[in-house]
Prior knowledge:
Blueprint: E1 9-12, H1 45-51, H2 54-58, E2 62-65, H3 78-88, E3 93-98, H4 105-115, E4 119-124, H5 132-135, H6 141-153, E5 158-163, H7 172-182, E6 186-190, E7 205-209, E8 215-220, H8 230-233, H9 235-242, H10 245-251, H11 257-261, E9 263-266, E10 272-273, H12 276-279, H13 295-301, H14 304-307, H15 315-319, H16 323-330, H17 342-348, H18 354-357
Parallel strand pairs: 1-2, 1-9, 2-3, 3-4, 4-5, 5-6
Antiparallel strand pairs: 7-8, 9-10
Helix pairs in contact: 3-4, 4-6, 9-10
Amino acid sequence: MYKYHDIKTVHLEITQKCQAACPMCDRNENGGKDNKHITNAELSLADCQSIFTPAFIQQLKTMYMCGNLGDPIVAKDTLEVFDYFRQHNPNMWLSMNTNAGAKSTDWWRELAGVFGRMGAVIFSVDGLRDTNHLYRQNVNWDNVERNMRAFIDAGGRARWDYIIFGHNEHQVEEAEQLAEAWGVERFQKKKSGRFFSAKSIHKEKHQAKNRKGVDTQLIEKPKQNEHQNLALQKQKEIEKTYGGMQNYYNSCSIKCKVAEEKNIFITAEGLLLPCCWTAGRMYKWWQSDYRVEQIWDYIDRAGGKQGISVIENSLEKVMSGGLLKDIEDSWTLPSLKEGKLGVCSMKCGTEFDPFGAQFQ
Length: 360
């Protein structure tokens, strides 16, 4: 894939904590109780100073916080970590994806100052006052509006990602107009790929629950074709050509998205993997034993969690440990059963890309 000195982008998951309970997020069971396999791990400023040396930061073009399980605004040291990167690389791009529902206006104004013009916040807001909380459960609209406006008014560059569901598709135009009025520089209509099932089941809906396990909103696909993910419409064609999604994953060519960006992913536990998708297979809440997932074969061959820990080892040592090459070598194996890494086929197979189609 690439070496330590080639890295240009760091995707940092600073925390597994989140105040929200989104029903399609792996940190909870359909918006209900927390994923039993996670520990709410979080990286501190001291951790990040140890992991990322000033010399390494100077070689980067981008550092962004998003992750699989947590929201950066819930972590204690998010602002300080961004400031640390900015101090050692004034010209790199900094960004963060967030639900916007936490921290004070002072915090948001300070973040705008750290980012300057070389950075942006991507606000994940899926509706308006009466609908955003139906998917972004436990996120308070007043906090969202207050924080977005504080960041923008302080000179911050804001982008708005709006996932379109059946319950909010009637508000897309209104939200876009509001974004313009607030000074958001880009409004992204996001056509969710999360209604896809690798088991060739065509998902139309997803039942959300609250922390007590009681059913809340029924999350449904948008009804208008213009709001639907085009890749999902292609699924039937793929299944017909290959005889099922599993056959497609066995035989598809892979073009790695993060290899093009020279990107690495650091989890809130301080583990290095090539991307959030590979890391995202580690702790599936519906598995009683999370280690049944295929990614653990690769982690074990790299020395287990200890072998890929950038807290217990230097980042350079982990990069030279063979995990990335092992994953890359799997792409030419005959099938998933014989070791081809399935998550790579799912996310970077060249003929079927629900992730990329979200933004089309």
